[in-house]
Design goal:
There is one protein chain. The chain has one domain: NlpE, N-terminal domain (Lipocalin, Beta Barrel). The chain has an eight-stranded antiparallel beta barrel with strand order 1-2-3-4-5-6-7-8. Strand 1 and strand 2 form a beta hairpin. The protein is of the alpha+beta class. It contains two helices and eight strands.
């Protein structure tokens, strides 16, 4: 009987450790996913998102000009967020910049963004955290800070 308890305890430890990543975070498709013992605490999930994240894409307009559009999300620990959309020319000169304020929360595997006026509205985005990258609705963002 004692052997059964020892084996059960060992399997429980292996199962719990199997859900951890090398950086100490929660493994899985996202850090909000449930795992043994009911899932991570809200602060652990929030810590995975807090920081400044950047995504850049480039395109060529009809006139042949290269445009680089960078989206920078800053998620603060207090639940506030800022999204900056910066359009640059090929030499890095800023052509346009738009900053939008928001609030954010996490619900299971969704990052919920509540935009402030004038872009009022709620946008749920599936997310994953993989090392120094954050994937929001399929777009990869690299951690800046």
């Amino acid at each position: 009987m004692r052997r059964v308890y020892v084996l059960s305890a060992a399997l429980l430890v292996v199962a719990a450790l199997g859900g951890c990543e090398a950086d100490g975070g929660i493994a899985g498709p996202n850090r909000g996913a449930p795992f043994i013992f009911g899932g991570p605490s809200a602060s652990l999930v929030d810590t995975a998102v807090v920081g400044t994240w950047s995504n850049s894409v480039s395109s060529i307009d009809a006139a042949g000009n290269v445009r680089i559009i960078e989206t920078v999300w800053r998620f603060n620990a207090d639940g506030s967020a800022t999204r900056a959309t910066i359009t640059r020319d090929a030499l890095g000169g800023i052509l346009d910049r738009q900053d939008v304020q928001a609030r954010w929360t996490v619900q299971t595997d969704q990052l919920i963004i509540d935009f402030a006026a004038p872009l009022s509205g709620r946008v749920p985005m599936p997310f994953q955290r993989q090392g120094l990258t954050l994937i929001l609705s399929g777009q990869t963002f690299v951690r800046l800070a």
